[in-house]
Predict the 3D structure of the following.
Amino acid sequence: MKPIETLAEAQRRAKKRLPKDVYNSLVAGTEKGLTTAANIDVFDEVGFHPRVARELPPTRDLTTTVLGIDMSMPVIVSPAGAQAVDPGGEVAVAKAAKAAGISMGLSSFASMPFKDVAAANENAFYQLYWVGTREQMTERVERARKDGAKALILTIDWAFASRRDWGSPSIPEKVTLGQIVRFAPQAALKPGWSKRWVLGGIPDLRAPNLASTEGGIPTFKEAYIEWVQTPLPTWEDVVWLRELWGGPFVVKGITNSEDAKRAVDSGADAISVSNHGGNNLDGTPASLRFLPNIVDSVGDQVEVLFDGGIRRGADVTKALALGAKAVLVGRVWMYGLAAGGQDGVAQVLEILRGGIDESLIGLGHASVKDLSRADLLLPEGFAL
């Protein structure tokens, strides 16, 4: 495999290797895609304030600790739902994350069981959507605990907005030879993708992490329908889940300082400032605009994480300078997985690492812990 030089190159290879509908499912946001685009574009508005001729060590310190777990850099693999990207799936991602010395969050809608991911990366977090009954959620939480989850992530922002102006690809019950044939001419134009799935065993498109004693293992489509039919959680539900879990607890999907305070009051150990990567309420401003005020509101009480629009190491540095303890990355690892399986994921993670390090050199810092808003040039009215 030819080395991947930039994350933009990883995305270009993903587009080249994947069928059109599969690729569109990775890059698309809901409705017009305003929020997805805003998440990326907002980093162009934030400038760096370089410092030169500073005495720096030969190796900069990129390490951090999140929820008590030491990491080699302030990057976490974000949970993302089942994707027909590569047969190696989330286990391949977990192995790449472990080799990089970072944690990984696994989605409830992942295609592989949490126990397999935790076996590949012992510092794995289990992400829970509010799906089904409390009894079913209790069963899933206890299974995650038994399988070694180091933290529980509750993703709380979701309005079930699934419409896309460019169309939403249909989700088959499973990937079969028949589906691949039906997928022609897209699959025919991507023989390498089709071959990888044939050789990989053509797994069912199921959601094993949403299995329950009463319902078995649902298909991805069945799980989504159940999710849509489940009443949205309240803050009382968040408190209940936090007490049930008892361990490190993350509330993901915060874009409002008042909600951040409610999450703290509900017992969160960390929050993630996130707009679901633009896959929720289109027209929501970029996540980065909310980060400074949320850090000012609760940053001394919980660890503040961030996700949304990260496409290079410099973006990570900007989020850290605005107060994030670490960032979660989603689409970039999927581009890497599509471009080259586990090795592709490993390469994009190292590209991020290199970009963070280069930013530290340019800013004259020896450690990510030295970053602050003084390193940035922000336009007036940037923070919301």
Notes: The two ends are 43 Å apart (CA to CA). The longest strand covers residues 249-254. The mean pLDDT is 92.
